[in-house]
Structure formats: structure tokens, C-alpha cells
Amino acid sequence: MGRVKLDVPETFKFATDVYVRIDDINYGGHLGNDAILSLIHEARVRFLKEYGFTEFNIGGAGIIMVDSVIVYKSEGFYGDVLRIDISVDDISKSGCDFFYKLTNKESGKEVARAKTGIAFFDYKKRKVVEVPRKFRELFSKK
């Protein structure tokens, strides 16, 4: 069986800690695959807030998720504290990729890594728009 591989950047712009909640646990007794998207969503909202943005207003544009990739590395359990590191890369005309690395703070084991493809979006006009200048200036590689 072929496996998806996901390389994450070596450096990250932001980190936040989240607890694995009871709702995040599946019938196997560990962190569910669906919960990863919820946890990285929380981390992304915190990341944007750090820069004065929201998902509906990043320099005048909102964002929508166009794809996601999750690669699991080890189990997570109820009560674990996960450090979620975030970086932005691959900025294009109208989007970018957010990369996430989830690590168990106590053991240091990587639990998962993920990527979400993001498009900038005008919710009033219901269309994709260009990456806002302020966002590009903050996160483009120099």
C-alpha cells in the first residue's frame, strides 16, 4: 500500500498548546482522525489572532479550506497536551498552504503532521480573491 508523505517546513512561525478532549477520542480509545482537523482549526484561529486576523478578515479577505492532508505518526490520548506548530508556505496568487506539526508535550513524540490548502475568499461576492498584501508581506519568504 502506498502511503502519503508530507514534508513540513523546518521552521514554524507560531506554536500553541491544546488538550486532547474526551470528544476527540474514538472507539479505539485514542485520538480520532476527524479530531485532528478540529484541533488544527483551533490552532489556526489562534495563529491568525496572533497577527490581528480572523478567518473572515485577513487584510479584507476571508479564507476557505480547499484541501487537507493528515499523516499520523503516533497515538494521542485523552488529556494529552499537544503542541501544534504552524507555518505558512507555498503562497500563490490566491492561496497558500498552512503546515502543522502536532507533538505530545510530555513524551516529545510527534503525533501527526498536516497541511491545509487555503484560498482567500470574498464571502460577499462568493469568489476567490488574491492573497492580501499584508498577509503576503508577513509570510512570504525573504
Please characterize this protein's 3D structure.
Strands 1, 2, 3, 4, 5 and 6 form a 6-stranded antiparallel β-sheet that branches. The chain has helices at residues 33-50, 133-139, and strands spanning 14-19, 62-72, 81-89, 95-104, 110-122, 127-128. Helix content is 18%, strand content 36%. The protein has a single domain, classed as Roll (Thiol Ester Dehydrase, Chain A).
Blueprint (SSEs and pairs):
Layout: E1 14-19, H1 33-50, E2 62-72, E3 81-89, E4 95-104, E5 110-122, E6 127-128, H2 133-139
Antiparallel strand pairs: 1-3, 2-5, 3-4, 4-5, 5-6
Q: What is the overall shape?
A: elongated
In N-to-C order, the SSE pattern is: EHEEEEEH
The CATH superfamily is known as Hotdog Thioesterase
What would the CATH topology be?
Answer: Thiol Ester Dehydrase, Chain A
Ranges with pLDDT <50 over ≥5 residues? none
Largest sheet: 6 strands, antiparallel
Q: What is the name of the CATH class? A: Alpha Beta
Number of spatially distinct domains: 1
pLDDT averaged over residues: 96
Counting helices, strands and paired strands, the structural category is alpha+beta
CATH architecture: Roll
Total helix count? 2
Terminal-residue CA separation: 39 Å
CA-based gyration radius = 16 Å
What percentage of amino acids are in beta strands?
35-45%
Let me know the number of strands: 6
Helix content: 10-25%
